Structure prediction request, 121 residues.
Amino acid sequence: QVQLVESGGGLVQAGGSLRLSCATSGRTLMGYAVGWFRQAPGKEREFVATSNWSGQITHYADSVKGRFTISRDNAKNTVSLQMNSLKPEDTAVYFCAADPGTSTSSASPYWGQGTQVTVSS
Prediction:
């Protein structure tokens, strides 16, 4: 069982930056794809970014490309999401996910509880 815990959310002004972290307890993240998703009030959960097990292959949603960066430290079993140039439309609960496959999706089996990111205009 992979247990994921996110941290680093908060309130930031538009144009600012935040760094989200996701840590696991129990099993290692080695061999798992990891990713970030978000859900805004009244909207479906949407994909933000994903990384394969090594961190060498990453994909981003068009809405965050060039602003967000996903990274992972397999030795520390952590995954990060660096968010720059934040916009009010980035406001959402952000979730970390892990998947034994090559990528993460809404069907991935392991999820964190989420961390709130609020961007004020």
The chain has a mean pLDDT of 95.
